[in-house]
Design brief:
alpha+beta, about 100 residues, 4 helices, three-stranded antiparallel β-sheet, HU Protein, Chain A, two-stranded antiparallel sheet
Length: about 100
């Protein structure tokens, strides 16, 4: 049976504490760094359409075209308007570290 503590997700407070310990800075500095990093990622993605998180992946803004869809309850055709969406593309190194590719025979 798996340990419950090991299966819980890391909180922001835990991440801030881990960064502070690893970098030898205070939690206040660590939290400020994390908040600035997130704000920079949002601003750059909004401005340039993409932002690379080194060693992790890339935030990419893309546009979806308008299309026809169906109302699932009535079956009536509806027009779905075009919109902008944000996607996250995981780096190949990270993907292979988390989910190793199957070995070829």
């Amino acid at each position: 049976m798996a340990d419950k503590a090991a299966s819980k997700k890391m909180t922001q407070t835990q991440l801030v504490a881990k960064l502070a310990d690893a970098c030898g800075v205070s939690k206040k500095v660590s939290k400020a760094l994390l908040e600035t990093y997130a704000a920079t990622a949002v601003a750059e993605t909004k401005k340039n359409g993409q932002f690379t998180l080194p060693g992790i992946g890339k935030l990419v803004r893309s546009e979806r075209k308008a299309r026809m869809g169906r109302n699932p309850s009535t079956g009536e055709p509806i027009k779905i308007p075009a919109k902008k969406v944000v996607k996250f593309r995981v780096a190949k190194v990270v993907k292979e570290a988390i989910v190793p590719p199957p070995k070829k025979k």
